[in-house]
Amino acid sequence: MGIRTDLRTIRHMAFPRVAGTTPAERMESYYRSTADDYDAFRERLLHGRRDLMDLLPAAPGGHLVDMGAGTGSNIAHLDERRRKDFHRITLVDVSSSMLDVAGRRVERCGWDNVETVLASATDYRPRDGQADVVMFSYALTMMPDWFAAVDHARAILRPGGTIAVCDFYVSRKHPAGGARHAAWRRHLWPAWFSHNNVFLSPDHLPYLRARFTAVHVRERLSPVPYLPARVPYYLFIGTKD
Ligand SMILES: C[S@@+](CC[C@H](N)C(=O)[O-])C[C@H]1O[C@@H](n2cnc3c(N)ncnc32)[C@H](O)[C@@H]1O
């Protein structure tokens, strides 16, 4: 971490290079030149990830699937005993550059139950049965078909399995419950993040609530490095009935 890395990241965010005709190609082109710098800046931008990992249920012998896992940093936030409890942890991502960083981390840390898989969250399937836990950490906002990714997660989860999500969002203008964000927040942040193909939605939380039984929901505001404003993020843990 350092000012040079920050400046490189900020320059990339201000002038993102995105090419390709499919969402996967666009994602890889976005991350190709910055995957090695990713963790340093995101540690201060993407809040709630440690809490999400702490809230994952124990699943001894189970299979955890991290959709849009990026560099695999979330697994480092799982304590050793809980990581080892999982029979298998699969890091799924469409960006090979991000998965290269994740693969090097897996090797360096000697995580022998963790694998990386280059695939989309809308079509990855566990090769031996159903998943016990599926998580998305700051990934749904980068998936144009986020609703299909949520539906697919539900399809590959065993009955009683857990979905765990944390991401940026904005509230609806008239939410049925929970936080209601001021108009400037509801307009500013989606416009700001869409420049980097991150699409904040008022519909994630209502959709997750509709598809799963909510176990834990948290709505918070988090600081943004170098900016005097805070951005809303949520954390959702739910089970498949
Ligand atoms: C902001 S990063 C989050 C990475 C990691 N989960 C974290 O919390 O740091 C979003 C990740 O989602 C991946 N991604 C985007 N669309 C995807 C899709 N359809 N299937 C799988 N991964 C996807 C991107 O390549 C990227 O690595």
TrEMBL record:
Keywords: Methyltransferase, Transferase
Gene Ontology molecular functions: methyltransferase activity
Signal peptide (from-to): none
Keyword Transferase: yes
Residue span, Methyltransferase domain: 65-161
Claim: Transport is one of the keywords in the record: no
Coiled-coil residues: none
Protein name, as recorded: Class I SAM-dependent methyltransferase
